[in-house]
């Protein structure tokens, strides 16, 4: 028996972010389009060959993208809004980049398509826009070109497409509304896919992979019919003049138990199931409905979302379990490997005893091949396999010893540790008095512009060109200057500016026990932007105070209230690679205790307002609503309360969130029991304000009064109008006035005038009250 292996997709940015570098140089005018194309071609070749030599049978093609695969899909379906067509570029790449980033130049001035988070990952896709007059038809030859390009290199690939159901569910109208799935549109989209499938049959491809991650979400009325009507037109197209291609319907990031019966009856040639995130439900569905005799199950056992080694014994057990229902089981990655770094090669600073526990994309390709080979062995063969023995050794015993002090602290927690006293209403009254703040207090979110000289100073310290004392002196000067200017323009609650922080998560990770850092483990976040999350390796605790000296220094330089600035436990975990040997809940609690120590030390050092940022709270909210509470919010929200529950009533706790999409979890956010929250409200603002109003939101709130993501300087008048809008929906006693996020990415030139207008607007509204 030979077991088929499949990789759903491979990272395209390159081992050393070659794609990022060449595209960014092209944008700056320092490289030509031909150079971009040639780097892209050599990256594709390298990635295909690497998978071929690892023995993968079904290697993806068309998983490459200059910017985003959803954008490529929109272009392939000819869903290119008129405003981009009118720019009339000579090269398709130029139109693509205009859609991705906007365009301002001699041909016109257009904004980019909106960008959204790709399911629960930190990858962002461009939201396709379908105009009413759009003609959906096959546009361009990208999937065929890349398939033939691989073939010319001697690699037979499996072309990958984002499926029509996922495309239609994620695309929007020009008004940013969900599409009306009229039959004309549905048929037109299905027909393009049918045409593509037929073309691949004619080209002689053995398989086409169609990704439908949207199938793992809760279904709305009409969804199943939509799915069926699309595939009723696509499946018959498998046979062309010259041959037949098999269709692998691939699902990931969760289970499809609610449509499994329908999908199974349709008789796809292959069905990809996520056996990490959707394991139990997917297995139960197979148990219940069996497997269509026409279908090979692609067992998604190799996790495309983590950096840890696969537990081969567990994966083999899953495959054996599937084989009780069907003989046709292929071994696959659970999702594309796009969401993991390239390779552990070169991370030598971590040491072999650490590195052997990690599998990035290259290593995961190897794991896929290993597991398939092992699954071909009988019990005796497995028992003597050195590969299996070596893998088992990684999981035998404990990878890292528990920290007894952390264990003891967690065990000693009781319900009261998660509840702050007295009740919020009373605290808010006492705080107003103790802090002496006016109505509509003004503040900022924490960071001030991180200019080049600040980053240069950090690099000098890292390279040993300056000593700690010189670095500290430089930072203190920056803090002094920042405080002086905040006083000058008349802000009420000041901040020190966060100049000493490289990143709001990495900075804390570097100062906590239990974290590891890589040199080159970048993951694409959007377009050419990549992130390098730290790794949670062991039990987390705080060795020493982290921010206390900086905040205390800043407070000593002003009579105003100085706000201390921390990152919350949920956000630290969501923007790191979490452990798998203990639950996310437990890791978050460890982090919560560490940050709690910092909160209490800040309070003891005389800091009276402390902000605990939970920018990424929504990021890991489960895809299915029925899981929201029991799988996430029920522990994430209490973990936040644990951080601040022990402070004095007069110490004011703030939090900040980076998005306005929280109307559906508004009560949970209130249950964090912060005294004040600031959040983004530049778009979708009215909906959130209505939600705040309707929920009787008890937390004082600062819905951002201007958008810091744009260099535009808002006028005093427009901020005043915004405040008036807010006051229509909120009790004036509960309103704070602030920008909608940190100012770190902005320049000085726009920051100060904007804040001057903000303060002036608040004063002028106050005068009218
Ligand atoms: N305090 C952080 C800052 O101002 C918050 C950043 C964020 O919300 N992403 O930069
Ligand atoms: Zn923010």
TrEMBL record:
Cofactor mode of binding and number, as noted: Binds 2 Zn(2+) ions per subunit. Binds 1 zinc ion per subunit.
Annotated positions binding Zn(2+): 656, 658, 680, 741
Domain Cobalamin-independent methionine synthase MetE C-terminal/archaeal, residue spans: 440-763
This enzyme's EC code(s): 2.1.1.14
GO molecular function, one term: 5-methyltetrahydropteroyltriglutamate-homocysteine S-methyltransferase activity
Residues involved in 5-methyltetrahydropteroyltri-L-glutamate binding: 17-20, 117, 122, 529-530, 575, 619
Alphabetized InterPro entries for the sequence: Cbl-indep_Met_Synth_N, Cobalamin-indep_Met_synthase, Met_Synth_C/arc, UROD/MetE-like_sf
Pfam family, one: Meth_synt_2
Example GO BP: methionine biosynthetic process
Binding locations of L-homocysteine: 445-447, 498, 613
Residues engaged in binding L-methionine: 445-447, 498, 613
Keyword Zinc among record annotations: yes
CDD domains recorded: CIMS_C_terminal_like, CIMS_N_terminal_like
Enzyme class: transferase
Family listed: Belongs to the vitamin-B12 independent methionine synthase family.
Name recorded for this polypeptide: 5-methyltetrahydropteroyltriglutamate--homocysteine methyltransferase
Source species of the chain: Bifidobacterium samirii
